[in-house]
Amino acid sequence: MRHVGPFFPGGGTGAGLLLIRMSVGASLLIAASADNLTPFRLPLALLLSAPIAIGYGTRIAAGLSICLISYLYLTGHGSLLGSMPQIVTALALVLTGPGAFSLDAYAFGRSTIVMTVRSNAGRAKRETPTLNDPPDRGVQR
């Protein structure tokens, strides 16, 4: 297993994820304000694009943006040709995460996990299992 838990790549990969976040946020705002505005579309797009752009709750906000873009397409406020790249880019952001240049990385931190192995040197001789001992399978019935 390569990593456990949140993974926040830095360097060029982190900068690329920053650009993807900016692209998803901008395309969400453009899609929501394309034609006649309904009362909820633009405020909802603003509520979703701001966290995506700054990298706060990125995976959840990107997942919700996929739902909003799909809704806009299904109600006739967008074309398939325009909606599919937005959905695919937001899905890539859901799968990869925000990167090192985000509030999520600041809040949860880039951490190193150090695993140690306990040695058998501290065990007493009487504690060593013999071949006659049954295997330990938890509670015996």
Characterization of the model:
With 141 residues, this protein is mostly helical. It has a domain at 11-108. The protein has helices at residues 11-32, 41-54, 58-74, 80-96, 103-108. It is elongated, with a radius of gyration of 24 Å. The model has no long low-confidence stretch (mean pLDDT 76).
How would you summarize this macromolecular structure in one to three sentences?
By secondary structure, the protein is mainly alpha-helical. It has 5 helices and no strands.
What is the residue-mean pLDDT, rounded to a whole number?
76
Estimate the strand proportion. under 5%
Q: What is the approximate shape? A: elongated
The number of helices is 5
Class from secondary-structure proportions? mainly alpha
Low-confidence stretches: none
Straight-line distance between termini: 36 Å
SSE pattern: HHHHH
Supply Rg: 24 Å
Q: Helical percent range?
A: 40-55%
Give the biggest sheet: none
- Compute the number of strand runs: 0
Keywords:
single chain; about 140 residues; mainly alpha; elongated
Helices, strands, pairings?
Elements: H1 11-32, H2 41-54, H3 58-74, H4 80-96, H5 103-108
Helix pairs in contact: 1-2, 1-3, 1-4, 2-3, 3-4
